């Protein structure tokens, strides 16, 4: 019974749910502020994403007449709840160890695909032609980045698995434990191809420049989100904030989970997430323009895929 | 105490006005001013929490430029219906008020306030960026009484 309660707490309050949402909104705020400073603007206050959410909760929800109302209404909630569940699967070194019942690396990988699927559903259910274009672009870019990232995840899993004496280790706790003993993978040059692949995955999965092609507001008017208004748009914003924490947290788990125990470890985790977000997302998005969908597709099937295959080959050769 | 929470929420909400631009047959002068007002570093309105949005369904403050030509009238009215309440309308430039240099033309259906309620007028041909920012700030004050 108490195990179930602890599981529920870890999904709804810490580190999923409330904690992930708060950290995600803070990271979004830092991202907007730093982006503004890089463009020599003043920028919005740090809590701007929170203000946006409060505002959206007080607006009217409009459901377009030509939409499939049930899918249109429930898609954002499904996406948000899947991301909250995924946030509970990210271990924080010395603070939190996810229960094995929640799933392993592969479960997390599938959960990470849910927001993209939800956006596709939302786009096609909205009945708007821009939503349909967003749907097709979201699908192409997802097909392009999933493969290379899976290769990067597998090379980490094989590296840890071989080190621990079995073929492959898909447990995130084991990956953290291995790096605690043998040093973080970020210091090992043989792991750098996998890390670079993962860095390319950040902007594509989080939907920011140069890969915000499905939601390009100047081309397809925010694509799948075009018809959403008020609280349901807020749910999408919450989903993307939690997704931010999940993706950044996964990167930290795979390559640099080391840190002290207790409150300091938690603070360090938040700092690492923020620094990674600034370097991996904000600087990239202020420095680049938007790619076309065919360019992005070709990019992912060229460099990240080559790096992913190289990294897997290195791991297999060294085992 | 219970009365204070909604007013606090509405005060926090006004820190996030999202802007949407409608061109009702403008000569593009005011649109250029609008684009530079928000985007160039010198007159950054993102510090007020503003953000241009691509979709009318995300908008809070509508900025309308142009004299409302006959051909574009129905589209503007339909776009206006698509914007969720509570919303505030700002007419930018002298054209929505009087028709400006296009007044008395057979192609003009305006003035705009015969068709949709206008909350703030920002006259000028085109208005200065400072005037537009002041108009947006006044629109936020109007918006606070509605949200």
UniProtKB/TrEMBL annotation, chain A:
Protein name, UniProt field = Hydrogenase
Q: What is its main location?
A: membrane
**Record localization:** Membrane
Q: Which GO terms describe its cellular component?
A: plasma membrane
Q: How does it sit in the membrane?
A: Multi-pass membrane protein
Organism listed in the record: Telmatospirillum siberiense
The residue ranges crossing the membrane are 6-27, 74-96, 108-131, 143-162, 190-213, 234-256, 262-284, 296-317
Highest taxon listed in the record's lineage: Bacteria
> What keywords is this UniProt entry annotated with?
Membrane, Transmembrane, Transmembrane helix
One Pfam family from the record: NADHdh
TrEMBL record, chain B:
Listed InterPro entries: Complex_I_20kDa-like (IPR052375), NADH_UbQ_OxRdtase-like_20kDa (IPR006137)
Q: Into which family does the record put it? A: Belongs to the complex I 20 kDa subunit family.
**Record-linked Pfam families:** Oxidored_q6
Q: Where is the NADH:ubiquinone oxidoreductase-like 20kDa subunit domain?
A: 27-138
Tell me the lineage of the source organism. Bacteria, Pseudomonadati, Pseudomonadota, Alphaproteobacteria, Rhodospirillales
The protein's name in its UniProt record: NADH-quinone oxidoreductase subunit B
- Kindly indicate whether the keyword Nuclease belongs to this entry: no
Instruction: Tell me which stretches of the chain form a coiled coil.
Output: none
Q: Name one GO molecular function term.
A: 4 iron, 4 sulfur cluster binding
Keyword annotations for this protein, in alphabetical order, are: 4Fe-4S, Cell membrane, Iron, Iron-sulfur, Membrane, Metal-binding
* Cofactors named for this entry: [4Fe-4S] cluster
């Amino acid at each position: 019974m108490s195990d179930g309660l602890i599981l529920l707490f870890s999904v709804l309050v810490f580190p999923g749910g409330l904690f992930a949402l708060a950290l995600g909104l803070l990271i979004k705020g830092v991202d907007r502020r730093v982006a503004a400073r890089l463009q020599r603007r003043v920028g919005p206050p740090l809590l701007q994403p929170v203000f946006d959410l409060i505002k959206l909760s007080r607006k009217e929800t409009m459901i377009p007449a030509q939409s499939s109302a049930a899918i249109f209404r429930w898609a954002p909630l499904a996406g948000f709840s899947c991301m909250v569940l995924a946030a509970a699967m990210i271990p924080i070194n010395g603070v939190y160890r996810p229960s094995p019942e929640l799933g392993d690396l592969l479960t997390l990988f599938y959960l990470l695909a849910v927001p993209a699927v939800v956006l596709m559903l939302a786009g096609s259910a909205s009945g708007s032609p821009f939503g349909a274009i967003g749907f097709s672009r979201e699908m192409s870019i997802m097909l392009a980045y999933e493969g290379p990232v899976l290769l990067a995840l597998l090379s980490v899993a094989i590296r840890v698995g071989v080190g621990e004496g079995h073929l492959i280790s898909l447990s995130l706790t084991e990956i953290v434990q291995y790096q605690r003993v043998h040093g973080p993978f970020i210091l090992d040059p043989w792991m750098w191809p996998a890390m670079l692949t993962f860095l390319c995955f950040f902007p594509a999965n989080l939907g920011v420049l140069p890969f915000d092609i499905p939601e390009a507001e100047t081309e397809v008017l925010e694509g799948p989100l075009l018809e959403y208004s008020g609280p349901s748009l807020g749910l999408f914003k919450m989903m993307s904030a939690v997704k931010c924490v999940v993706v950044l947290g996964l990167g930290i788990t795979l390559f640099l989970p080391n840190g002290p125990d207790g409150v300091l470890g938690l603070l360090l985790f938040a700092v690492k997430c923020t620094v990674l977000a600034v370097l991996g997302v904000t600087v990239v998005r202020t420095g680049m323009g938007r790619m076309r969908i065919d360019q992005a597709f070709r990019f992912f099937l060229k460099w990240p895929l080559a790096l992913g295959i190289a990294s897997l080959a290195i791991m297999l050769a060294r085992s | 105490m219970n009365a204070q929470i909604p007013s606090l929420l509405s005060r926090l909400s006004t820190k996030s006005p999202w802007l949407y631009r409608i061109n009702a047959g403008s000569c593009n002068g005011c649109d250029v001013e609008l684009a530079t007002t928000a985007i160039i570093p010198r007159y950054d309105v993102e510090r007020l929490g503003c953000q241009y949005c691509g979709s009318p369904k995300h908008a809070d403050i509508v900025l309308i430029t142009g004299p409302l030509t006959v051909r574009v009238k129905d589209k503007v009215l339909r776009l206006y219906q698509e914007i969720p309440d509570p919303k505030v309308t700002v007419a930018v430039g002298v054209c929505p008020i009087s028709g400006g240099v296009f007044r008395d033309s057979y192609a003009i259906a305006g003035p705009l306030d015969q068709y949709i309620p206008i909350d703030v007028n920002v006259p000028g041909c085109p208005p200065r960026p400072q005037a537009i920012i002041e108009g947006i700030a006044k629109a936020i004050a109007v918006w606070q009484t509605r949200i």
